[in-house]
Design brief:
Arc Repressor Mutant, subunit A, 13 helices, 4-stranded mixed beta sheet, 317 residues, alpha+beta, 7-stranded mixed beta sheet, 3 domains, 14 strands, 22% strand
Length: 317
């Protein structure tokens, strides 16, 4: 990597091992390879992750390293997905992709090599989200494309598009065997959740805060009510339910009377983009429940505790 910089920039980089790691948290020390690089008279820390780290964690860890060492921290990768590249560039986070790209704004350096890029995406489709959550629940280790299609009850073509998305994100989840592709994962459920989390979306399409409650067998617990089902959290004075888009149309929810913002509804109905059958079928799955919680709801410490309880239980192997 340093030879690549020499050839690219025509500036000799002075490199030394970074030995002052005792002040760093253990998880940082164990998960990175460190060097100190002096380039154009400026010293910086070069940190190379030993394993895949999601973007949210990279951002926090790079800032921690910068603050702890007092040097600019340049993250180094052998490869990096397009989403992370775009976010790091937008936020001014220095990085090097070996033999492909150098971005060090503190030195005024931004050089890239045109390489083949798959579709640029920041968030995944809801089918791909459903696939990932199903993979977590069922602890997939090796599932071929046609098997995934059968498990999710969709066409091979639909799963093929989801596999394309996962390849585009550079998550190293899709492998090729012969002429076919398969989903492969050797880590824990928690590691897969952490890897995918920054790409997961709010599963709620629309929310109806109804002035009058309705009784329909298609309603299942959702949102805060689902969180309460899976934890010790106490529910609101009203319950929150979920329905599919098709059921919402049949129930003509758009014609129901809703209360103004700030008033207490009789019930809340969320229209979800997908449904993962779970438990007794009377509540949405726990990870989708976590993803359905709004930022305002998360500001309540009790809700955060409930989310931690749920993740601890359902992401354990």
């Amino acid at each position: 990597m340093f030879d690549y910089l020499d050839k690219l920039l025509h500036i000799k980089a002075e490199v030394a091992e970074f030995t002052q790691t005792d002040s760093l948290p253990l998880y940082i020390r164990n998960n990175y390879i460190f060097n100190v690089m002096k380039l154009a008279g400026v010293e910086c820390l070069v940190a190379k992750p030993k394993e895949n780290v999601n973007f949210a964690a990279l951002r926090k860890q790079q800032m921690l390293l910068k603050n702890e060492t007092g040097m600019e921290c340049v993250l180094c990768f052998e490869k990096l997905n397009q989403y992370a590249k775009n976010k790091m560039t937008a936020e001014g986070m220095p990085f090097i992709i070996e033999a492909k790209q150098v971005y060090m704004p503190f030195l005024g350096i931004a050089i890239g090599q045109h390489d083949r890029q798959l579709t640029e995406i920041g968030k995944i489709s809801f089918l791909t989200q459903k696939l990932l959550l199903t993979a977590i629940y069922q602890h997939w280790s090796k599932v071929f494309l046609f098997e995934a299609a059968g498990l999710l009850k969709v066409s091979d073509m639909s799963i093929s598009r989801s596999f394309d998305e996962l390849e585009a994100l550079g998550l190293s989840l899709i492998a090729r065997e012969g002429k076919g592709r398969c989903f492969m994962w050797n880590g824990s459920k928690r590691q897969l959740w952490d890897l995918a989390f920054s790409f997961l979306c709010d599963p709620v399409n629309k929310t109806f805060s109804l002035a009058t409650g309705i009784d329909d067998k298609r309603l299942i617990l959702s949102g805060i009510s689902a969180l309460c089902h899976y934890s010790m959290l106490a529910d609101n004075v009203y319950q929150t339910f979920a329905v599919t888009k098709a059921a919402a149309r049949e129930m003509q929810l758009n014609k129901q009377v809703c209360v103004p913002t700030g008033e207490v509804p009789a019930m809340v109905i969320q229209v979800l983009h997908y449904n993962i059958p779970f438990d007794d079928g009377k509540v949405i799955d726990p990870l989708t429940a976590v993803l359905s919680i709004t930022q305002a709801e998360k500001s309540d410490p009790r809700v955060e505790v409930a989310i931690d309880e749920i993740l601890e239980e359902y992401l354990s192997d």
